Amino acid sequence: MPRTGWIFRRRAAAVLGLLGLTAGAGALGTVATGCAGDDGGPCLSDEQFFAEKVWAPILSTKCIGCHNPQGQAASSKLVLAGSSEAGFLDRNLATFKSLASLERDGTSYVLLKPTRRIEHGGGHVIDEGGSEYEALSEMVARTKEPSSCETDVNASLAGVVMSGPEETLRMASLELGGRLPTEAEEQAVQQGGMAALDPILDQLLTEEAFYERLKEIYNDLFLTDRYLNGGEAAIDLLKSEAYDPKWYQSIPQDPALIQKYGARDLEDVTAKLRTWTNRAIGREPLELIAYIVRNDRSFKEVLTADYTVVNPFSARAYGVAAEFENDADPYEFVPAKRDPIPLAGVLSTIVFLTRHPTTSTNRNRHRARVVYEFFLGTDILKTAEQPLDQTKITDFNPTMNNAACTVCHVPLDPLAGAFHTFDDLGRYKADSTWYEDMRPPGFGAESVPFSEFPRAIQWVAKRVADDPRFALAAVTTMYTGLTGKRPLTAPANDDPEYSARFRAYLAQYHAFNAIARDFAESDYNLKTVVKGIIKSPYFRARNVAAASSRGDALPDLGGARFLGPEQLHRKIWAVTGYPWRPRAFEDDGNRYDFLLRRDAYRLLYGGIDSEEVTLRITEPNGVMANIADRMANEMACIAVPRDLNLPAEERLLFPYVETTFEPRDANDFEVVPAVDAIKRNIQHLHKRVLGERLELDDPEIERTYQIFLGTWEEGKAGMAKAEGEEGRLSRSLPGACQVQSDYWTREGLPDDQKLTRDENYTVRAWMSVMTYLLSDFRFLYQ
């Protein structure tokens, strides 16, 4: 077959240059100018004014050094949160408002203290009458008479090209449902625009593929899938005598079980029960999240649920009673309790506790740290802004007494105490005590009441879920999962592009806060978050319309995302109608999906195994490029002949052509009807494979046609050569590409239904086109 790799690379480079897909400060240069102010300038909301005029130039530079939870002014009424905490601006604004209401002789303490008109431990900080004083004065006035202006997030995105309704629908369908939009869904958004997207998203969020995607997103945090890497890794975590983890070893040797569980023999029955038990225990936290979201329950139950979920096999291992519609279905999960253990959502699952372990010296601090990170959006280690100088740690018990240590340990250690009833193996110890040389179990300023001490994990989990940061953390987790990008962070004060970057950060901060508020108002239905992100500019941003006139550097904003192995697997199947695997199923009944298996390409293509590899590769390397090339070639070989062998009305890829449609006749004259049909099918393929709606006279259609034509011409010439002549090509399809059996059943086809020969070289020409499109940037990226 003629090589077209150089064309692939040229096209990919052109597309990369076209889409660029980094947008930032240049396109985000102006934030929120929703209406005109009294002076004719921008009308800023109170939140935006506080962030831009008070927090950024004053509080974050001149005040927070002392006015932080561990600073010299920690006991004052102005205690500020750092930018490493989720929702820090809202929290600091609330603190500011509270202090602003305190006055002496009609003047707010916010103005009296920094000018040292009354005693101020920090001395004279700002001058009365200066610009900083005026900003504080206006902010104080705004606390008494709030502005009617609203934060206009979209104004900060001027110049950024957004995907339209149809493109957004395609991206959402592939991202959430692992499928292409239906014709009816496409027609709905064509007629109704973005407003028509809501009911379609509602449907996508009920489909099983969405829950698989949701579990992938949260496993990237929890990394609990490490226990699925073979054997009985999850089963072996059940150490309590109350459990029967390997119950399947003592089942009766009843031949009826072979049919019940779809096994080959009794040995295979045992193997299946072991696998299904291990998977249910290993995925318990993820299945709990899926259960909560599937049933539209409050997402707070991820932490507060006094139940867990089990399938028919993990129920046997735990020894719990549960009712199932089908007790042979490994994918049916129902709620169950594990008395007398006080359950607290994912926090009390054995795999979560052992994946995030503790030691006699760590004392559950690691577990507490990941709770802050996963569910409060706060990296507790970043709250200490300065490097730790160990020579200054001279106190007895520094985690209690040294300011360099307490900055982290004051919030961390009480939450660590909530796990005191769970040992290093995740076993519940009701009579466990807590360390006297650590802060008592609790959260924030509250300590666990003595009566709640055995159930400290439940008491603390409820308060974590009630914290305003919980909602925002869910938004940022789903944003990263759906876009592959981390949320913007507040720039350092000495950043040379501080103003532009802070405005970009502020726009995203307000957008995410709005989604978090909608989330809370929906009784914490996570589907509200997903819909909010999909419809937001941070999912839909595709490109920058024009370069910034100021030449500002641009932070990441939406745009293309390199698809991970799981997502690419689903996209290949959705687009071509077939998965990338050697055959539908193996002789043992298992499936060998190249992009999903740890022993195939999952890790090589940037995926994780949650054990040794825990971070995804998001920029392709040479190995990944070669895997993509192999995929494109092999999927063209699988899908093209099989699709062409179907009746035209059943085809996904080639509804407009037949294998007899050649672009030229025997006299080398163009066959116009055939060429028109070929180009029309190329147009169809561009839409199906790449999501492009192109006119028939588009240059891209012509380029793709030239690939078809060039391949066909070389192929016809090769087949015309004499036997034994160099370059002679066979009239038979390559063996792997021949259609000799039904793909899904592997049963042989009658001779008249087989496709083994390519007399006109059109099948291989179309395979060349499909290889070209499947290796394109726009297919490998989302």
What does this structure look like?
The chain is mostly helical and 782 residues long. It has a two-stranded antiparallel ribbon. Strands 3-8 form a two-stranded antiparallel sheet. The longest helix has 24 residues, at 498-521. A hairpin with a 2-residue loop joins strand 1 (103-104) and strand 2. It is globular. The chain has helices spanning 5-19, 46-63, 88-100, 109-112, 131-144, 165-177, 183-192, 197-204, 208-222, 256-260, 266-282, 284-294, 301-304, 312-318, 350-355, 365-376, 398-401, 403-417, 456-466, 468-483, 498-521, 526-535, 537-540, 565-576, 622-644, 672-690, 699-719, 762-774, 777-780, and strands at 103-104, 107-108, 160-162, 308-310, 334-336, 442-443, 446-447, 541-544. Helix 11 packs across helix 14 (312-318) and helix 26 (672-690) packs across helix 27. It is built from 29 helices and 8 strands. Mean pLDDT is 90; it is low at 1-36 and 547-554. Helix content is 45%, strand content 3%.
